[in-house]
Design a protein that fits this description.
This protein is of the alpha+beta class. The protein has helices at residues 47-54, 82-88, 97-149, 154-194, 198-226, 230-259, 271-288, 333-337, 370-380, 477-484, and strands at 12-13, 16-17, 36-38, 44-46, 292-298, 301-310, 313-317, 320-321, 329-332, 346-353, 356-365, 390-391, 394-396, 404-407, 432-434, 438-441, 454-457, 461-466, 469-475, 493-502. Strands 5, 6, 7, 8, 9, 10, 11, 12, 13, 14, 16, 17, 19 and 20 form a 14-stranded mixed sheet that branches. Strands 1-2 form a two-stranded antiparallel ribbon. The model is unreliable at 1-17 and 251-268 (pLDDT under 50).
Length: 503
C-alpha cells in the first residue's frame, strides 16, 4: 500500500502535514462537533472522537498511546488546533477533483489486486481439489474391487479405503468452505468496483485485510491436504493386489483350464474328474474372494454365466452377453453343462421385491416336451433370451382353490409378449390334476397367453386339471405365495434364473 488507512491529504504548513479529516473517524473537520483539537503528544483529532475517548477513561492518544499532559473532564478542555482550522478556511487547501479521483483509483486498484490474488489462489486450489476428489473416488473404487477379490489383502486395503473416505470427506469440507469464500470475495470485489467515495473504498479495503487471514488459513488447509501421500500409498497397494490377483487367479486356473479342455470328447467316465476340478476351482475362488464364471463364445460373441454354491447345490445363472468381471475364475460353459443330469433336470427362479432378494424357487422339470425344453432354455439363456429381469404379471383366482401366478413375458414384461423360441412348438398334451407347486406352460386353447408364459399354482384344486404341465416346485413355494399377496404382483421380479446342479 502506498498510504495507510486514514491517509492524510493536505498541504505543507509550518513544517508539518495537516489533514482535513479526523484520523480516527475519517470524517472531515468542521467548526462544531468535528472541531480539530490537539493533544499534548501533537496528534490532532476531532472533538467527537476525543469526547468518546474520555467516556472510556483517561485521555490516551489513539495512535501513540501517550496520555494527555493535563487532566481533562470534557473535550472542550483540549486546546483547538487553530492551524488546522485556518487551513480549513483556506480554499486553496481543499482537495482538487483530479487528485481525489486519482487517490480513489489508486486505492481501488490496490484493493482489486489483493482480492484478485486471493481469487486466483482460491480457484487454483478448487480446480485441483475437484480433480483430486475425482482421482480419490476412482482409486477408492479400484480398492473396493480388490478388497472383495483378495482376502489376504483385505486388512490393508480396508485401512486405505477408510483413509481415502476420510480424506474425501475433508476435501468436500474444504471445497465447500472454498466455494463460500470465493462467493464472499466476489461480493467484496463488486462492492469495491461500485464504490464512489474514498470512505467506501477504505471501509471495503479494511474488510479485505481482515478477511485475508481467513483466506490464508483456508489456502493452507487446501495446500496441506493436496500434499497428502494417500494416493501414492493407494497406488502401491493397488499394484501389489493386482499382481497377487493375477498370480492367484491366473496360475491357479492354468491347470484347471488344461484339465477342462480335453483333446478328445469327454465320456461319462470323465465326469467325476470334472466335478473334482470344479470343486477345486470353487474352493480356490472362496479362498481368495473371487467369483467363478462359465464362459462360451458363439460366432465371435462372448457370453458368460455366474456360478455360486449354496449348501450342496451349484446354481448356474442364465447366460448373458459380455465378459465376466475382472479378477474371476472362468471355466468353459460346455464342460459345466455336461454335468447336468438329463434324467432329473432342475432349474431355479430367484425372486426379488422391495429392493431385496427374497430367495430362490427350485423347480424339477417333469418331461422333455417341446414346451418344457423351451422353459429350460429361457431359464438357462442358452438360446439367447432368458427370464432374468422379468416380472410376474398376473394372479388368477386369488385366495381361491387353484390360485396361480403368471410370468414369463421376456419381451414386453407385462403379459402382452413372449414369442416361442425358434424350432420349439407346444407338443402333445399331458393331463395332470392341479396341485400346489405345479408349473405349467402355454396352451394353444388360451388366446390371452403367449408361448413363453408359465404359471405356478399356489394351492390344490382337485376338480381341475392342467393339460400342459412342465415342472413341480421342490422348494420356495412360500416365496411364490408371498409374491401373490403383494398389492401389485408386478413388483415381484425374477432377478436371476438358471440351472441347479447337485454336488
Amino acid at each position: 500500500m502506498s498510504a495507510p488507512a486514514g491517509m492524510e491529504v493536505g498541504a505543507q504548513k509550518g513544517g508539518e502535514m495537516a489533514s482535513q479529516d479526523c484520523q480516527v473517524c475519517l470524517e472531515p473537520y468542521d467548526d462544531n462537533i468535528r472541531r480539530p483539537r490537539c493533544l499534548s503528544c501533537g496528534h490532532t483529532f476531532c472533538t467527537s472522537c476525543i469526547a468518546d475517548t474520555i467516556t472510556r477513561g483517561p485521555l490516551y492518544c489513539p495512535f501513540c498511546r501517550v496520555i494527555h499532559a493535563s487532566p481533562v473532564s470534557r473535550a472542550d478542555d483540549v486546546p483547538v488546533n487553530y492551524t488546522v482550522v485556518s487551513l480549513l478556511q483556506d480554499s486553496s487547501y481543499s482537495l482538487g477533483t483530479e487528485r481525489s479521483l486519482a487517490l480513489l483509483s489508486e486505492l481501488k486498484r490496490e484493493a482489486n489486486d489483493l482480492t484478485t490474488a486471493q481469487l486466483v489462489t482460491c480457484n487454483c486450489h478448487l480446480t485441483r481439489l475437484t480433480d483430486f476428489k475425482k482421482r480419490l473416488s476412482e482409486q477408492r473404487s479400484v480398492h473396493q474391487v480388490q478388497i472383495q477379490a483378495l482376502k489376504t489383502l483385505i486388512e490393508r486395503n480396508e485401512s486405505l479405503l477408510q483413509d481415502m473416505t476420510s480424506t474425501e470427506g475433508q476435501v468436500d469440507s474444504i471445497i465447500t468452505a472454498g466455494v463460500d469464500k470465493r462467493a464472499t470475495l466476489e461480493v467484496a470485489q463488486a462492492r469495491v468496483n461500485a464504490a464512489t467515495t474514498l470512505l467506501e473504498v477504505t471501509a471495503a479495503h479494511h474488510q479485505d485485510q481482515e478477511r485475508d487471514g481467513s483466506v490464508r488459513e483456508w489456502s493452507s488447509a487446501a495446500h496441506q491436504i493436496l500434499q497428502s501421500q494417500i494416493l501414492i500409498a493407494a497406488r502401491e497397494v493397488e499394484h501389489v493386489t493386482t499382481a497377487a490377483l493375477q498370480a492367484v487367479v491366473g496360475r491357479s486356473m492354468s491347470a484347471a483350464a488344461a484339465a477342462l479342455t480335453p483333446t478328445k470328447p469327454q465320456s461319462s467316465d470323465d465326469l467325476p474328474d470334472t466335478w473334482k476340478i470344479l470343486q477345486e476351482v470353487m474352493s480356490k475362488a472362496r479362498l481368495v474372494g473371487t467369483g467363478v464364471w462359465a464362459v462360451m463364445d458363439i460366432d465371435g460373441r462372448r457370453r458368460c454365466a455366474k456360478m455360486v454354491t449354496v449348501d450342496d447345490r451349484l446354481y448356474l445363472s442364465a447366460l448373458r452377453e459380455g465378459d465376466p468381471p475382472i479378477y474371476t475364475h472362468t471355466m468353459p460353459y460346455r464342460n459345466v453343462r455336461r454335468l447336468v443330469d438329463e434324467t432329473c433336470v432342475r432349474i431355479f427362479l430367484e425372486l426379488t421385491w422391495g429392493g431385496k432378494v427374497q430367495g430362490k424357487v427350485c423347480i424339477k422339470l417333469l418331461n422333455t416336451a417341446p414346451r418344457t425344453r423351451q422353459f429350460f432354455f429361457l431359464c438357462s439363456g442358452e438360446r439367447g433370451p432368458s427370464y432374468s429381469s422379468t416380472s410376474f404379471f398376473e394372479v388368477e383366482s386369488r385366495g381361491q382353490p387353484g390360485e396361480r401366478v403368471w410370468g414369463g413375458d421376456y419381451e414386453n414384461n407385462d403379459g402382452s409378449g413372449g414369442s416361442a423360441l425358434p424350432g420349439l412348438i407346444m407338443g402333445d398334451l399331458n393331463v395332470q390334476t392341479v396341485t400346489a407347486g405345479l408349473v405349467a406352460g402355454y396352451c394353444y386353447g388360451d388366446e390371452h397367453r403367449k408361448p413363453s408364459h408359465f404359471v405356478i399354482y399356489n394351492n390344490d384344486c382337485p376338480v381341475a386339471y392342467e393339460e400342459c404341465p412342465i415342472g413341480k416346485v421342490e422348494s420356495g413355494m412360500d416365496l411364490v405365495r408371498a409374491a401373490a399377496k403383494l398389492a401389485n404382483v408386478q413388483e415381484a421380479i425374477v432377478s436371476d434364473c438358471g440351472i441347479v446342479l447337485s454336488i
